[in-house]
Amino acid sequence: MIAARRLFAPALVLGLAGWTFAGHAVDPIGVTSLSVVPATGRAQVVIGVTSEISVSDFTLGSPHRLVIDLNGAVLDMNGSYDRIARGGITNIRYSQFKSDVVRVVIELDGQHPYEVRRSASEVRVSVDGGTSAFEAWHSNSAAATRQTAREADPEPEMRMTPVAQQSSQPRITVTYQDADIRDVIAAFATFAGRTIVVGKDVSGTVTAEIRNQPWDVALRAILEGQGLAAAEDPVTGIISVDSYANIQNKQAVEPLVTRMVPVNYANAAGLAGTLRQMLARDCQPGSGVPQAA
């Protein structure tokens, strides 16, 4: 039993390697290589990392793109993709998107189902529906060596993004240019027919082009780009948008609610530390955690 409140955007709050909780920083994870390799009926983008990492993903249209954010990471490789089409992938771009986020943008020739898996040393993105008759590409010799070693001795993987679990919320197409973040959130509230309360410290501007994306996925990506999170009240359905710290502080003084919260594909050791910092003050270790009836 986990004492918690329903989170509207759990990927933004739980399991973000590199995020600081209560002043405890996590060493950044190196992104060291990238490969595109053939598999049966699909192409796979293999991202080499120095340890297990938290991943966020979403798609964009016109042109079709798959965006992979590696949280708590620093880019530690050079070079660029050769722009040769491989299995539906037409180009790949990667950069240090933020000080603690490496972003990999996979450009596609159309809409393709995809799946994200991770292990201790890599993130593997499978793009279905394209030809697998192509020669592998590697960003450096280390990537080629990694792939050869993996074929000889596969690592256990954790599935991150099964297609069946993608959002079924209504889709939105909208473009913002230097729009006030509060106006953007209000527009999403109107579109979704939801009540969204914005914290007093929320500020900034948004530049984004969103095409045919579920509204909750699009809003999550916008909030993440602003360093914000959202929490949904499980009783009223009201969504609160604020900084991570403010949401955490607010939840710490609210009455404790005990609920079963399913947690999928998370590293147990990393999740335990994150949850410990998010516990309400009356639920700290040694305080006698209430048991469910």
Describe this protein's structure.
With 293 residues, the protein is of the alpha+beta class. The protein folds into two domains: 2-20 and 166-283, Phage tail protein beta-alpha-beta fold, CATH 3.55.50.30; 29-162, Immunoglobulin-like, CATH 2.60.40.3500. The chain contains six helices and 18 strands. The protein has helices at residues 10-13, 141-152, 181-192, 215-225, 244-253, 268-278; strands at residues 2-3, 29-39, 42-49, 54-60, 65-71, 73-75, 89-98, 101-108, 114-118, 122-128, 137-138, 158-159, 171-180, 196-198, 205-214, 228-232, 239-243, 258-259. The strands form five sheets. Strands 2, 3, 6, 9, 10, 11 and 12 form a seven-stranded mixed beta sheet that branches. The longest helix has 12 residues, at 141-152. It is globular and about 55 Å long. Mean pLDDT is 76; it is low at 1-25, 158-165 and 286-293.
